[in-house]
Design a protein that fits this description.
Blueprint (H helix, E strand, L loop, with lengths): L1 H15 L1 H23 L10 H7 L2 H13 L12 E7 L4 H5 L6 E4 L4 E9 L6 E9 L2 E2 L6 H17 L3 E8 L5 H19 L3 E10 L5 E5 L5 E7 L5 E4 L4 E3 L2 H14 L2 E2 L7 E2 L2 E8 L9 E7 L14 H31 L14 H11 L4 E8 L6 H17 L9 H5 L1 H4 L5 E6 L2 H12 L36 H4 L9 E3 L3 H19 L9 H10 L14 H15 L3 H35 L4 E4 L10 E3 L3 H4 L2
Parallel strand pairs: 1-5, 1-16, 6-15, 6-16
Antiparallel strand pairs: 2-3, 3-4, 4-17, 7-8, 7-11, 7-14, 8-9, 9-10, 12-13, 14-15, 18-19, 19-20
The structure holds adenosine-5'-triphosphate.
């Protein structure tokens, strides 16, 4: 829940303060350009002087970060490093709808250093500071945004095809968020590949199946070349996992292969979702079996895996129940894939070598079971293509994808002679292969933008939250803007004794968060309503109540008597405990007053309760009825958009 809260804050902020964050991205890019230029002047400048102008021009951290990427280029030899496991990244261009929303590009690539920079715009918890985290992810290769499918094929698939033709096993995996171009790239690569296959071999056998959910909600494989008949996934004698019973189509020409593949893709499960008009709802695995004698003496295999995209729950609000179930299975298998990468990475980090002792949960999902050898067998050539979206609203996804492919990469570093194990172990901070750098950049331009943002406090919010501050906090500010302040953390309202008129907050896309906050308010109200319920008073509360009354006579109530026991005594019993009739009357009157207050509180609580129930999963609009010294909140269900500033 907390992460969702943060996520919604950051996503909303990135849209709201796009200009400021964009400036931070521009700062980094200019700094990189300046660094490259200064490097060129190195020969004419005294030693160590080339960096100096850069640090004057830009924020020190940003300057250093750009210098590392443009001049030091620690990862520049990544593409030439011999490795049977490679990780590449492809970023799709911004889509038209994203351009219409005036979204900026939050990813930059450092081609020479084979790394991707994620510019992660954030709002500080104080609600007034915005900043950008620049994170560098070093990979084996990064495609420029305008790279064609041919380029991707040459870099990612061609080496795998060659080794498969020579009788080896190889796998190409497309991994990333939904709508980032996995299927687009996979199909583009296959198109180019078809031609080359038949230049080297006379025939190839095609198998194509998908991993999706059964009606009973279990993972299963379905043959896409045999009308989605269910097939089994078993471990063979060679120790590798195979799908048994899948139809094998023998293709003798590029046309045969294209036709068979087109038929298979027609059967693939896909649906229209919020993020993608034709979103794959299954993991598709396409196998090309090459007979012995193609280029090698033994049969070879090339497996192309187009994984379904990962998605977050706020992106699946419009999913039907069955879509949500299928999405759950997809997310589960992807989670297991990431978990295996994490465990292998941990093993590598701790031991710096491959060990059989550590348990990697490959069997928890059929997907990881099938792909096991791609991650563990050094003779198996594997390339993972991470697909990324440049949109600032997808930064969390991009970070997640890159972190996991980075883990996969470093998990296999034990077999890579050129990568020193300890370097990889520390790679997360040193920026070495398999690791990544993070730097917090607060450029000057970003700072000046912040000053502007402070003036318009009214709209500075995480989830369209509008507040008016009263009490001592108001003294902190001056002028007209003094009255208005915004906070990200709803809990602050209480601490700061915020008085709010009309709109306390309007929450969009944060229903769970809203419900949580409102539920805690309700619990407080519930506790407050019990303050007048005689039945719930303990002995101490009863004694305190009696002490607070100014009775004419004496009341002999035992110190251990509770409110419920007093209630059971009835009027006659009460009279017997009082020294005289006047005291008994006064006590009766006081108790009657308490009963009335209790009834009022209970009625208010019931109405609040009904409104809370009505909130459901919809947009929530909470408002204060009248300002008072302490925060008092009443809940109103309304159309959030209409109440928004
Ligand atoms: N490199 C690219 N250049 C141009 N358009 C692209 C590129 N990558 C993806 N797209 C476009 O983005 C959209 C989504 O692509 P695609 O369906 O391949 O995504 P996906 O990652 O397979 O999504 P899902 O996981 O939901 O199946 C498509 O309309 C596609 O044309």
């Amino acid at each position: 829940m907390a992460s969702n809260h943060k996520l919604v804050c950051a996503r909303a902020a990135r849209q709201q303060f796009g200009g400021a964050f964009q400036q931070a991205v521009r700062d980094y890019r200019w700094a990189k350009l300046a660094a490259a230029t200064l490097k060129g002047l190195d020969a004419y400048l005294p030693d160590g002087l080339s960096f100096l102008p850069l640090s004057y021009l830009y924020d020190d951290e940003v300057a250093r970060f750009a210098w590392e990427g443009a001049v030091m280029k620690e990862n520049q030899d990544a593409s030439t490093r011999p490795s049977s496991f490679r990780v590449l990244a492809r970023t799709r261009p911004l889509q038209l709808s994203e351009v219409d929303e005036k979204l900026y590009e939050s990813l930059s690539s450092e081609g020479g250093n084979h790394s991707i920079i994620v510019h992660d715009g954030r709002v500080h918890r104080d609600g007034r500071t915005i900043y950008t985290n620049h994170s560098r992810f070093c990979l084996d290769g990064v495609f420029p945004q305008d790279a064609s499918n041919l380029q991707v094929y040459q870099e990612a698939a061609q080496p795998l095809l060659r080794s498969a033709l020579q009788g080896e096993r190889s796998t190409l995996i497309f991994f990333g968020q939904t709508g980032t171009g996995k299927t687009y790239t996979a199909r583009g690569v296959l198109e180019v590949m078809t031609e080359e296959i038949f230049q080297n071999t006379q025939e190839v056998t095609l198998c194509c199946y998908e991993m999706a959910g059964t009606r009973g909600g279990r993972e299963a494989f379905f043959d896409l070349l045999a009308d989605r008949a269910q097939v089994k996934c078993l471990t063979g004698e060679d120790g590798n996992v195979h799908v048994r019973g899948a139809k094998q189509v023998l293709c003798r020409s590029a046309q045969d292969l294209e036709e068979a593949m087109a038929k298979a893709f027609e059967w693939r499960s896909s649906e229209c979702t919020e993020r993608n008009e034709a979103s794959s709802r299954s993991h598709c695995i396409l196998e090309l079996h090459f007979p012995s004698g193609s280029l090698g003496s033994v049969p070879g295999l090339l497996r192309i895996v187009d994984l379904a995209g990962s998605e977050r729950n706020f992106e699946t609000q419009m999913h039907s129940r069955s879509m949500a179930e299928r999405g759950g299975l997809i997310n589960y298998s992807l989670l297991m894939l990431k978990e295996c990468a994490r465990v292998m990475h941990k093993q590598m980090k701790q031991l710096g070598e491959k060990t059989e002792d550590l348990h990697v949960p490959f069997r928890r999902s059929r997907l990881t079971h099938l792909l096991r050898s791609s991650f563990t067998d050094p003779s198996h050539q594997t390339t993972v293509v991470a697909t990324l979206s440049p949109s600032p609203t997808d930064v969390e996804h991009s970070l997640n994808t890159l972190q996991h492919v980075g883990m996969m990469r470093s998990a296999r570093a034990w077999e890579d002679n050129t990568v020193n194990a300890t370097t990889v172990a520390e790679g997360e901070t040193s920026g070495a292969a398999g690791g990544f750098d993070v730097v917090q950049g607060r450029g000057r331009a970003l700072h000046s933008k912040l000053q502007d943002a402070r003036k318009g406090q009214l709209n500075l919010h995480a989830f369209q939250m509008k507040t008016q501050v009263g009490g001592s906090i108001i003294k902190k500010y001056e002028g007209d803007s003094a009255k208005l302040e915004t906070f990200i953390d709803a809990r602050w309202h209480r601490e700061l004794k915020v008085k709010v008129q009309e709109d306390l907050w309007v929450l969009r896309d944060a229903d769970m968060e809203a419900t949580q906050v409102l539920t805690s308010w309700r619990q407080e109200q519930w506790t407050a309503s019990k303050a007048h319920d005689l039945h719930r008073w303990d002995a101490k509360m009863l004694q305190n109540f009696l002490k607070s009354l100014e009775l004419p006579g004496e009341v002999r109530i035992p110190s251990t008597m509770t409110g419920a026991q007093l209630k059971r005594l009835g009027p006659r019993g009460l009279v017997a405990l009082c020294s005289d009739a006047a005291t008994a009357d006064a006590l009766q009157l006081a108790l009657h007053g308490e009963r009335q207050r209790d009834a009022l509180a209970a009625a208010a609580h019931r109405s609040r309760n009904a409104r809370m129930t009505a909130l459901g999963n919809h947009k929530v609009h909470a408002a204060v009825e009248e300002p008072s010294d302490f925060v008092d909140v009443d809940f109103v269900v309304g159309e959030a958009a209409s109440a928004a500033p």
